[in-house]
Sequence to fold (201 residues):
Amino acid sequence: MSTVAELAAIAARIRGRVIEMSHAAETPHLGSSLSCVDLLVATYWGPLRIDPKHPLDPNRDRFILSKGHAATALYVTLAERGFFDAALLDTYDTDGGALPEHPGLQCVPGVEAATGSLGHGLPIALGMALAARIQKRPSRQFVLMSDGECEEGSVWEAAMFAPAQKLDSVVVMVDYNKWQATGRSDEIMALAPLAEKWRAF
Fold:
């Protein structure tokens, strides 16, 4: 188990590499990538049951980056965790490179879903949870969403579906950084009280 200081050092390394990648590729979404690093580190060095040497183990936990625009943070996290050689990060968003601006399914080991169009990560995770229950596998599903994404109707449809089907293996995290593409989240679509909305399910 890593100490808080060790986790903070990992997060700092990830943030530094994310900045380098975004600068080199001249891609947007830097703030969104930086704001979720602590959640990624807490999950990948915490409860997520994974083995980078066996990335397709059928009993593994699944992590879905529903806010696919924060792909750089996920890629660097996966490299830090040992899923692939960190040198591959230099190919981010290049012609013929393995790391697209938004993650593609298994574009590199550890990427569990193609995301980028917001509102799809939670439904995907619930489908995985339902499949795991049918197949009697112990897998859990962790979903990282953006706060702006919570404006999508599919998010709340999925939130209603989970308790209706008694799918209790899914963990949802919302990166409540209070910003989205065109301004402050609460000025575009007021979300507060967000925690209470989720607890209602």
